[in-house]
Amino acid sequence: MSNVYKLKPIIKSYIWGGDYFKKYRECSFDNISESWELSIRKDNVVLVDSINKPLDEVINEDDLGIACKRFPYFPLLIKLIDAKDNLSIQVHPSDEYALKYENSFGKSEMWHIISCDPGAGLYVGLNKDYSKEEIEKKLKDSSILECLNFYKVKPGDTFLINPGTIHAIGKGVRLIEIQQNSDLTYRLYDYLRKDKNGNYRELHIDKALKVINYHQYQNQSIKGDVLADNQYFRVIKKEINGEYLLCANKGSFLSFTFICGEGKVDDIEYHEFDTFFLPCGKSCLIKGIGVVIISGVNK
């Protein structure tokens, strides 16, 4: 009997989404903006594919690992994102600010590029040091993009988005996002777009100005297969070519998503963009080819 669970993701459709993932997902939506690969939230719990039951009804607290005990909730949220149009310019607060003012944890996240259109990119961080007053003025006159780094991306690029970093996914980008399990987002700018009812989306400028990092952004350096390694998550990228024994230590469960390839995890077939959950203290054998993104919680 296998120790691993293949997951059935939750599909989200928004006005900015594309159709890149539609051939990999069964859904009735016109587009797939986000495919929530790993989620245990009050209103969004992924299913175990083989038995169609919510993951939180199949696993227990002991399956999560020692590192997860410091969190009062399931700690990670993992998504595949397809941006056919630009996402809003936004920022996330830190745990310290969010716990004090929002009764919530903040959000750290990372992006790893799967594919992209020519010239597509990301807005990440300020291109030099600014004052709060300067950024406020740029927001008021809708020229905030002049202050941001725009990185043209290619498959395999990785960006760490710490709390306070202004950011947005640009149109034509497909990526995997690993983040703290929080939906706390302050929207700064939305390109003066209106919804189907002719209304502008709500902005949160006053709150955002209190949490922005006003210093020039410096992206992390990637060391080998380690894409991210902070106090919330550790993410590695592994190329599969034959057999690979994946072991989750007692510190944390592991979640892993194949961004290409095919084969088997124990006796369960995997294909491109399939995601699995491995409880802590367990192992599984991957046989096949491809590239897999493996995520767990740091101590």
Number of strands: 22
Counting structural domains, the number is: 2
Order of helices and strands: EEEEEEEHEEHEEHEEEEEHEEEEEE
Largest sheet geometry: 9 strands, antiparallel
3D shape: globular
Helix tally equals 4
User: What's the Cα radius of gyration?
Assistant: 19 Å
Any overview of this molecule?
Helices cover 9% and strands 41% of the residues. The chain is mostly beta strands. The protein has 2 domains: 5-222, Jelly Rolls, CATH 2.60.120; 228-297, Jelly Rolls, CATH 2.60.120. The strands form 5 sheets. Strands 1, 6, 7, 17, 18, 19, 20, 21 and 22 form a 9-stranded antiparallel beta sheet that branches. A 6-stranded antiparallel beta sheet has the order 2-3-8-15-10-13, with no helix packed on it. A 3-stranded antiparallel beta sheet has the order 12-11-14, with no helix packed on it. The relative contact order is 0.21.
Quick structural summary:
This protein is mainly beta and 299 residues long. The protein is built from four helices and 22 strands. The protein folds into two domains: 5-222, Sandwich (Jelly Rolls); 228-297, Jelly Rolls (Sandwich), CATH 2.60.120.10.
Topology:
Layout: E1 5-8, E2 10-12, E3 34-38, E4 40-41, E5 44-45, E6 47-48, E7 53-54, H1 55-58, E8 76-83, E9 89-91, H2 95-101, E10 109-116, E11 121-126, H3 132-140, E12 148-152, E13 158-161, E14 167-169, E15 173-180, E16 186-189, H4 205-211, E17 226-229, E18 233-247, E19 254-265, E20 268-270, E21 275-278, E22 283-297
Antiparallel strand pairs: 1-6, 1-21, 2-3, 3-8, 4-5, 6-7, 8-15, 9-16, 10-13, 10-15, 11-12, 11-14, 17-18, 18-22, 19-20, 19-21, 19-22
